[in-house]
DNA sequence: TTGTAAGCGTTATCAA
DNA sequence: TTGATAACGCTTACAA
């Protein structure tokens, strides 16, 4: 099976030089006759030589490897984040260990140990929700960047989404489209993310001298079903509602369904804004959903970039960096139909 | 920043023994006085010693690392697969490099090179669709397992989903629920996956002496919108249809929406079966979708297990191993309501 | 029972 | 311009 892989020594022998020369030739270091360098390069190619990165890492102390520890790789959350991480890391030939803790502290600890042993250059710890967590138990000296969930140690660096800003974005857009009776249906009140989104909405409504339709934020679950039920409740409390901002695209789907059942047109009678920009959910909706994109890909990119900074020894201040959200415009907030 | 990490030498010094003794003590090898072993272990713990896995790998030729090369980490596909892979690998302290090619051959080649250099123990190449692809261009001798997309080299090993079987499952279930006028709406005809699902359905209908409602398979796109449009077409062609098997949960969502618009009850008038068991789509549907689960987690588990076999030198025959699908029962195929 | 030393595949230093 | 040689941190014969 496992045939012998050529080493610098093999290349050296074939090129008729010493191993030191091979190393210099292949890494463009030191002074070498051009002819020699060419001969070495040729020999290396002929043998299909690939430098053993373990040996390189052992010698250099750098592994060109970072790990992403995530509590959930399911669904909408982890994927755009990973994309952004790879955007930033890919250029540098940095490879990514993916570690899923499945929300289990034991697993996390286990992974942290393994990563220590593997001498990764840095670690990105990604949480699913905005909350404070204990710092990762890893060898001191290894750079760590926290994503979304931030470390309880204020000297740690964290990058996160702008949920308040997302709420503001949605609210301003609805006001600009001429809506004034805006309701809000979202996830569990015990989580910070939905509370921040609601805060963003409220701040805009306050400045405009408007009240929340239905007189309250409808906190509930992250499900379509909650969207359906809450929409009933909201419309019961405030039948003249002309817009609903939803804390997730899933909730928005449920809301839209209820509206359709009630023969209310979207956006004709009621405009709907979602949150997440979870493509299959938002684009598949009828009508397609205008929704706040939390910019997770950019979050990932920023996290990885800062991590590279730290690895390179460039100072990165502790604290939280917030990445702005943006609004994906689709039809659910389109201009009111003529005659509506 | 980067403080010095303790080595065997440090542990040896602290325990007052030699490095060789440390190694033996920590790895339970050779004959050692129990007292000495304990002293070494204590010293190691006090120093927070973690063996450098690069050095271990260099020396042993094993890195306890495998890579998963995937063409798309988006959405429903990659996540359950990765879960299964980690199920099988986790026990062994094997870490996973995640490489996303973004469907770009250049990127794939680039990743293959890097993985060669890193001396990964094995590689899982995951495609999104059932098709034949060129073998991964990697150093000979490195075990590779293909997932879903199979290698054109018949001596390579591939594990894949049972789409024919999935179609059979759906069909039998519908027949068993008393449906006889079954239509089929699915994805693009140019892909093998939807064709196989259709073949499974047809085989069952044939044996039962039944025809496909609407007289044809409705091939189209993997979108809700296609589901909506195709449902109209199907009902136009065959108004007495009493069940629709859909090639994806997204399509099924669209179908269900059209049925609701037409005041047709699901499952009362028409039963609907989806494909994928993509939780948020299928469970969020009203009514929740009965759907074929292609068992991707198991596919991942099998792939990783076979890869470990190959790495361990246990022979694994080339060819394709098919993992059975199963049916997730929800309400969209429930018993007909009384009086319907 | 323990210590010494060679070797894994690189890179880097210093001589030649 | 090139070649020896010593690290890097570990495991493992083999010697003590």
TrEMBL record, chains A, B:
Claim: Disulfide bond is one of the keywords in the record? no
Supply the InterPro entries for this chain.
HTH_LacI, LacI/GalR-like_sensor, Lambda_DNA-bd_dom_sf, Peripla_BP_I
* Pfam families tied to this protein: LacI, Peripla_BP_3
Domain of life from the UniProt record: Bacteria
Q: HTH lacI-type domain: from which residue to which, for each copy?
A: 6-60
> Quick check: keyword DNA-binding in the entry?
yes
Q: Recite the UniProt keywords alphabetically.
A: DNA-binding, Transcription, Transcription regulation
Any GO MF annotation of the entry: transcription cis-regulatory region binding
Q: Indicate what this protein is called per its UniProt record.
A: LacI family transcriptional regulator
